[in-house]
Amino acid sequence: xxxxxxxxxxxxxxxxxxxxxxxxxxxxxxxxxxxxxxxxxxxxxxxxxxxxxxxxxxxxxxxxxxxxxxxxxxxxxxxxxxxxxxxxxxxxxxxxxxxxxxxxxxxxxxxxxxxxxxxxxxxxxxxxxxxxxxxxxxxxxxxxxxxxxxxxxxxxxxxxxxxxxxxxxxxxxxxxxxxxxxxxxxxxxxxxxxxxxxxxxxxxxxxxxxxxxxxxxxxxxxxxxxxxxxxxxxxxxxxxxxxxxxxxxxxxxxxxxxxxxxxxxxxxxxxxxxxxxxxxxxxxxxxxxxxxxxxxxx
Length: 298
Hints:
Largest sheet: 5 strands, mixed
Number of helices: 4
Number of domains: 2
Distance between the termini: 34 Å
Helix content: under 10%
CATH topology of the largest domain: Neuraminidase
Oligomer: single chain
Strand content: 35-45%
Number of strands: 23
Strand order of the largest sheet: 1-20-19-18-17
Order of helices and strands: HHEEEEEEEEEEEEEEEEEEEEHEEEH
CATH class of the largest domain: Mainly Beta
């Protein structure tokens, strides 16, 4: 996701007792950049200001581990990453922004796109998941998703959902969907109907702005929009059991655009490799998955 909504009922106005992304403009950033493309940056400022007063991530009691880089791979610096996954030896990526939205298959070693389908404007493409020979994809505000044939990227189906679409992953039985709120929707992959929701909390407070998702050995990893952290979520309770801090990776990239935040998590279950990247980042990182926090492992 790239901008907050003022119409999504799943995301209320900032209130005390919720955990929000702490947002601040880079030093010297011009106001017109912060307001570009209709972004509601004043609302972001309020959310960040409130989080600083109420529940800053750094002050929480949840353990945080810095990301430890294992390897670096080239990544398309024009890929506004909204979804990322690993399947049968290749990366699959969904990109956003009208006119730049696509679904693509990517060679890890070279970063080259080997297969691609464009999503025409004005659609803003969002997250993807693979389910039984299909790629399932979301859109941001259109309340419409599509099914694509995994082999030839041919569109084979359409579905609809209320609110916004941000990200998808699969736990092997259901699809899990984020919408930018503090809840993760659990969906029936056959019908895309909602089965239930997982309310996500950090230190007892709802965690808003849940973005890109990845199912990793029984836990959910989630980017938190406009932050440098990945939340480790217990799917049974919705509790955040740990944070992975990507600050050093963001510093290495040194993004010049306020939108170029960490987003994109892919797990190679067979090789036990964890990949992360960001919007318009030139690098995709393989990082070491930290041991599961003790409280979650019990």
